[in-house]
Amino acid sequence: MRPRIVIRYVGMVLIINAIALLIAAAVSLYYGDSSFSTLLYSSLISASFGFFPLIFVPAVSHLTNDEGILIVISSWILISLIGALPFVLWGGEFTFTNAWFESVSGFTTTGSSILNNIEALPMGLLFWRSLTHWLGGLGIIIFVLSLLPSMGMSGLVLIRNEMSPLARNNFRANAKNTLRILLIVYVGLTVLETVALKICGMSVFDAVTHSFATIATGGFSTKNLSIAHFNSVAVESVIMVFMIFSGIHFGILFMTLIGSKLILFKSTVVHYYVAALLIGTFISAYDIYGHYSSSWWEALRFASFQVISLGTSTGFANADSSVWPALSKVILMFFALQCACAGSTSGGIKVDRFVLLWKDIIRQLRLLRHPNAIIPVRLDGEKIEDSVVSQSVLYIVVYLTVIFAASTVLIALGVEVVPSISGTIATMGNVGPGLSYVGSTGNFSQIPDAGKWILTGTMLLGRLEIYGLLIFLLPKSWIPRNTTNAIYK
Amino acid sequence: MVLRIKILSGFFILALMLSIAGFWSIKELRSIGTSVQNLLDENYKSINSAKVMLEALEREDSGILLLMLGKWEEGRKIISAGDSLFQLGYNIASSNITIENEKSYIEEISKDYFLYKQTWERPIVGTDREGNITWYFDKPHKQFMSVKESVNKLMNLNDKTMFDTASELQNRANRAVMPGIVAIIAAVIFSLIFTYFINYFMISPIVKITNSVTAFVTEGKNYNVEIESKDEISRLSDSIRTLCEFVKTAERKN
Predict the structure, then answer these.
(1) What is the ipTM score, two decimals?
(2) Cα distance from N-terminal residue to C-terminal residue, chain B
(3) Pairing relation of β-strands A377-379 and A382-384?
(4) Using CB atoms within 10 A of its CB, is residue B110 exposed (0-12), middle (13-18) or buried (19+)?
(5) Any idea which of A7-16, A473-482, B69-78, B136-145 has the lowest mean pLDDT?
(6) Which of A432, A441, A416, A215 lies closest to A336 in space, CA to CA?
(7) Please, which residues have CB within 8 angstroms of residue B172's CB and are 6 or more apart in sequence?
(8) Exposed, middle or buried, B71 (CB in 10 Å: 0-12/13-18/19+)?
(9) A-chain residues within 8 Å CB-CB of B5?
(10) Residue range of the domain that includes B80
(11) Is some CB atom of chain A closer than 8 A to the CB atom of B6?
(12) Residue A379 DSSP symbol
């Protein structure tokens, strides 16, 4: 382990963070609000910590896997810390814990908030909140790598540690092209949604900020009532369409859009993803019809938006689903656990792992009837290695164990059962809203400070797919090893 | 990059972080001072003027009641004093418009007071209004309540603004303190990183070079120091390596 190399690469991430803060400061200056100096100073701090290592530490052409993991984890923690600075410096409802919560929630695209009055924030800070989603949505390291010139093998190590193992499956291109595809789809979807929302009557500011939050499947709105504030079917429809797209593997979207392959329509994962959303919508609509909505149309409108919002880990709201009947709440929590496809900006366990789990269950049932048979798990005609299947099943088990452990601690801290469990599920899946007072129209301000720190831990665990952060916490990762073979450029 | 720039950049960044934080804290503290002054000058002044107007209105109401009892001289004296006091309060309030919509509140007071004044400007003593309690409740008292309400509205507006400004002061105080705290923490972390770099890229290589040169001189060991950075230290190391090789070649020749 070479700490100086880790500092150098984390510095690059901080430079991108500084540029983003500077853009937010420019927005603040344009609107003449009170957050300009806080954003500018935070940008300066981020830039100072970013540029300084570049002056001292020469570039390397190779990184070890441990260094890659440490760079990725340190980057996420440090950008969240520096991302919290504008909030802390501005004050208002932001104590240090609250600012940290808001920042981690932004970068991990969770979208949970501690704010009781979002609309009291100045425009610059509202823009920064949304921008944290957009930077974190693609993965901050992926973002940096796609903007910087090729870093050779070092870049590959970082991509390997940043991207979900399942996500890499559908990228048939090399590393540089993979990054290019990701960036094109990401920026393209953001621009398209911004234009569509503007046409639907949103202001440019709201259109941009809500596009950032949708494409990153984040969920921060600039309004206290989230999307319900706009009370517009057109706005909700546009956001729903883009939430669904943002939940699909970007590689599949890109190949379908350029017309080279129509795997979007052939992919088993996408079929399951869409079918699950449709079934969830219809059951919820049936459940709330007559109780919480006066017409079928209204029931479908609310149910489809809430199911898609949680099923893609976005977390926007057009209704208060925390008062819905129990069946609808269970469905919403299922989607908050499952979320969307690997290779998208979504969080949660991911549809791909659920598909593999179902297929493995079927295989095990068939093996009971034919104990000597060799039955591989197949996905879209391709045989999936047993190790991949068992890793996915293990991931689900570990994921649920973390939720159980974190919920138990929250309950021990005095938080009620429903907000504890639903809040943990929502933060671990980077979804945002849970149930009860942490529901779609509520917030996390009532959670005690210790609980907020635990929930930010689950946000990071969910975003980094658990293992990365766990390895980071092992003391072994920090012991320097002899890496004299590393080649300096 | 040359050593001088590397070292100077570290100190420059530290100085920049601290000085900007200091400048910002001073600016926020000054703005707190300005806000407190505004609070006193603007809102408190308007609230006081509203209180003066309310006192004047009460006096005028008493004057009207005296006129209705037939006490012309006392009544007119009290009304006249009340009117002067009201004008004084009104003039202060109208020359101290600092809040959005405050002007419309002042205009409402002016309009209502004009109507109120009409009720007691005409003679009361010796007319059918003397002792006429129905007329009092229908006309002057109704109008008196109307002006009073308008003045109260102005006072409430200034009260609310005063409260908001006081709450904002808490935020300002936070904004004055936080840059200092953030700058100190950032400067400490930055200093640690700076020290680590200085130690790793400057002191440690110099120690290595010294040890290797000593080993070369005393034990005849080869000079073998690898320097990561591309600066004066790496050039010094290369020069010493060349020198050592030169010395060794010269020794072999001798």
Answers:
(1) 0.78
(2) 40
(3) antiparallel
(4) middle
(5) A473-482
(6) A432
(7) B28, B31, B32, B35
(8) middle
(9) 55
(10) 14-185
(11) yes
(12) E
B174: nearest CA partner in chain A: A91
Domain range annotation of chain A? 1-162+447-489, 171-387
- Residue to substitute from A1, A38, A48, interface B, most B β-carbons within 10 A: A48
- Residue from A14, A45, A61, A85 to probe the interface with B (highest B Cβ count within 10 Å): A45
Between helices B140-198 and A65-90, what is the axis angle to 10°?
150
Question: Residue range A447-458: average pLDDT?
Answer: 95
| Torsion over CA: B28, B34, B40, B43 (sign) | negative
* Residue of A14, A41, A90 to mutate, testing the B interface (most B Cβ within 10 Å of its Cβ): A41
Q: Do A85 and B182 touch (CB under 8 A)?
A: yes
Determine which helix (DSSP H) or strand (DSSP E) holds A228, and give its type and residue range: none
For residue B230, being part of any structural domain is answered with: no
CA torsion sign, B175 to B181 to B182 to B183? Answer: positive
B194 touching A, CB under 8 A? yes
Length in residues, chain A? 489
Residue B206 lies in a domain: no
Question: CB contacts < 8 Å between A and B, how many?
Answer: 66
Picking from A105, A106, A200, the residue whose alpha carbon sits closest to that of residue A452 is: A105
pLDDT 10s digits, A258-317: 776 677 788 888 999 999 999 999 999 999 988 888 899 999 999 999 999 999 999 999
Q: Report the residue of chain B nearest A487, measured CA to CA.
A: B228
Q: Which of A2-6, B36-40, B79-83 has the highest mean pLDDT?
A: B79-83
Q: Give chain B's domain count.
A: 1
Q: Is residue B89 part of a domain?
A: yes
**Distance (Å, rounded) from C-alpha B184 to C-alpha B194?**
15
* Phi, psi at A383, each rounded to 5°: -75, 130
Distance from CA of A225 to the nearest CA of B (A): 24
Residues of B in contact with A55 (CB under 8 A): 1, 5-6, 9
Q: With CA atoms as reference, report the closest residue to A37 among B20, B173, B165, B33.
A: B20
Mean pLDDT score, A451-476: 82
Give the Cα separation of A377 and A364 in Å (integer): 10
A interface with B, Cβ–Cβ below 8 Å: 3-4, 7, 37-38, 41, 44-45, 48-49, 52-53, 55-58, 85, 88-92, 488
3-state secondary structure of A41: helix
Sign (positive or negative) of CA dihedral A160, A163, A166, A169: negative
Q: Do B9 and A89 touch (CB under 8 A)?
A: no
pLDDT digits (tens, 9 = 90+) for A156-206: 666 666 666 666 555 555 667 777 888 888 899 999 999 999 999 999 999
Chain A residues whose beta carbon lies within 8 Å of the beta carbon of residue B170 = 91
Read off the pLDDT of residues B42-86 as tens digits, 9 standing for 90 and up. Answer: 788 888 899 999 999 999 999 999 998 888 888 999 999 999 999
CB within 8 Å: B175 and A53: no
Query: b vs e for B233-246, b when ≥16 Cβ sit within 10 Å of the residue's Cβ?
Result: bbeebeebbeebee
Q: Does residue B203 form part of some domain? A: no
CATH number assigned to the domain comprising residue B73:
1.20.120
Query: Is the CB of B196 less than 8 angstroms away from the CB of A55?
Result: no
Q: Do B17 and A85 touch (CB under 8 A)?
A: no
